[in-house]
Design a protein that fits this description.
The chain has helices spanning about 1-15, 45-55, 100-110, 135-140, 140-160, 190-200, 220-230, 245-255, 275-285, 295-305, 380-390; strands at about 60-65, 70-75, 80-90, 95-100, 115-125, 125-130, 165-170, 170-175, 185, 260, 290-295, 320-325, 330, 340-350, 355-365, 365-370, 375, 395-400, 405-410. The protein has 2 domains: about 1-185, no CATH class; about 195-410, no CATH class. The protein has 11 helices and 19 strands. It starts with a helix and ends with a strand. The protein is elongated and about 75 Å long. α3 (about 100-110) crosses α5 and α8 crosses α10 (about 295-305). The longest helix has 18 residues, at about 140-160. It is α+β, with helices and mostly antiparallel strands and about 425 residues long. It is about 30% helix and about 25% strand.
């Protein structure tokens, strides 16, 4: 009886927390879109990688693949009833049988999450997956639904003897129903190559560079450096190599530095060529969408900001969505944050390299802030504050063509 009471309480907590705003992206990992396109660049499953990622304690039934040598992960869109297929070839093109746990692993890799599977069993056509209780605490209700539906649909479409699935939580049936309902498999019929061909017709127009705000007097090179460092938006970061900068930050700065286009005729950024993107984007997002950043343009902006060696993995960041089928980013249509303003105290040039002494402030709706402490800085005290209180950094950059720069390092000055 004690155990029944415990799991009833667990179910009540799950239902309660699912209604108290846990869908916030700041509270849980983002999994709304897979980060890597496999329409054009299908990734190959590595047997060594699979073995390293699979829990050794679980014995999983064997799945007979519907298509030998190939797994297709069907990702449920979080805002609509559409699934997006991602084809993943195995190393053996004739492979017919894998374990159900390997299908789970494929879903984890595509969604970039972890599914805490305790056991997988199958009796005739019924597959039972027991999940650890913390699963419903690790993800918001909408994310739980996306993960379970994606996994169920992937098993359904890849495993020949699959008929239905039951999810358990710590061995208890009922939290997700006696039998999990899998929605009808609805796919967009559009060809991603057609969208790629449309994107290729629109030339890249260069970086969106914001006018430099010089808090202290500096020359034209200093002003150009202010523009560059403002786009990088690294006010409190120590950078020794490019690998110190996270992918989400590279994505965000590249998108913000790229011109967007709209399908709204009265917009100054109107691009009628993108009209075919509007309907599928709106269906994927669950609302009318008319703003787009093209992935190729974002890639070019990333190269201009960080250099040819930059590694960029497309995907959602913050509340911005990446629609892999279309190859575009869409915005959250909400107010943005503050702008980072570098303050140049001085610099030295040596050949094509430059070292500068820099501090940062953030300009927001309410005035100026210290990004280290988020202390408000009165405007009439701004110059005195940055000269006496701001943390200073030594910033090293390499000069490139067009009097532009590439960051080499940034470290606080003791």
């Amino acid at each position: 009886m004690r155990y029944k009471v415990f799991y009833c309480l667990l179910l009540a907590i799950f239902l309660l927390t699912s209604c108290t705003g846990r869908d916030s992206q700041s509270e849980t990992p983002s999994i709304s879109e897979p980060s890597v396109s496999v329409f054009d660049e299908a990734s190959t499953l590595s047997s060594s990688t699979e073995e390293a990622s699979l829990p050794e304690r679980i014995d999983a039934p064997v799945a007979e693949l519907a298509v030998p040598g190939q797994i297709t992960v069907y990702v449920k869109n979080p805002n609509s009833d559409i699934f997006t297929p991602y084809v993943i070839p195995t190393q053996d093109s004739l492979l017919k049988n894998i374990t159900l746990l390997e299908l789970v692993s494929a879903v984890e890799d595509q969604l970039q999450i972890e599914i805490p599977v305790l056991s997988i069993t199958q009796r005739k056509g019924m597959v039972v997956i027991d999940l650890a209780g913390h699963f419903i605490e690790d993800y918001a209700k909408s994310q739980v639904e996306q993960i379970l539906t994606t996994l169920a649909a992937t098993l359904q479409q890849n495993h020949r003897t699959f008929e239905w699935i039951q999810y358990q939580l710590d061995g208890v049936v009922g939290v997700f129903g006696e039998q999990y309902t899998i929605p009808s498999l609805k796919l967009l019929e559009e060809d991603p190559e057609e969208f790629a061909a449309i994107r290729a017709q629109i030339p890249y127009e260069g970086l969106n560079i914001y006018p430099a705000q010089s808090i202290l007097e500096t020359d034209d090179t200093g002003k150009k450096l202010i523009e560059y460092l403002s786009l990088l938006d690294l006010p409190t970061n120590t950078v020794t190599t490019l690998a110190d900068i996270k992918n989400d930050h590279i994505l965000q700065t590249a998108v913000f530095a790229t011109k967007h286009y709209e399908t709204y005729p009265d917009s100054e950024n109107y691009k009628p060529e993108l009209k075919p993107f509007e309907a599928p984007a709106s269906e994927l997002l669950g609302f009318v969408e008319q703003w787009f950043w093209l992935k190729e343009h974002v890639e070019e902006s990333a190269r201009l900001l960080y250099g040819e060696d930059v590694s960029l993995v497309h995907g959602d960041f913050g509340k911005y969505r990446y629609l892999d089928l279309l190859g575009v980013y869409t915005p959250p249509h909400m107010g943005g944050g503050g702008q980072t303003i570098p303050v140049i105290f001085g610099y030295e040039e040596s050949g094509n390299r430059l070292r500068a002494e820099v501090a940062y402030v953030v300009a927001g709706m309410g005035g100026y802030l210290d990004p280290e402490t988020w202390e408000e800085i009165p405007q009439d005290q701004l110059k005195e504050y940055v000269q006496t209180k701001s943390i200073r950094y030594e910033v090293a950059v390499k000069k490139t063509a067009g009097n532009w720069f590439l960051l080499e390092s940034q470290r606080p000055i003791d």
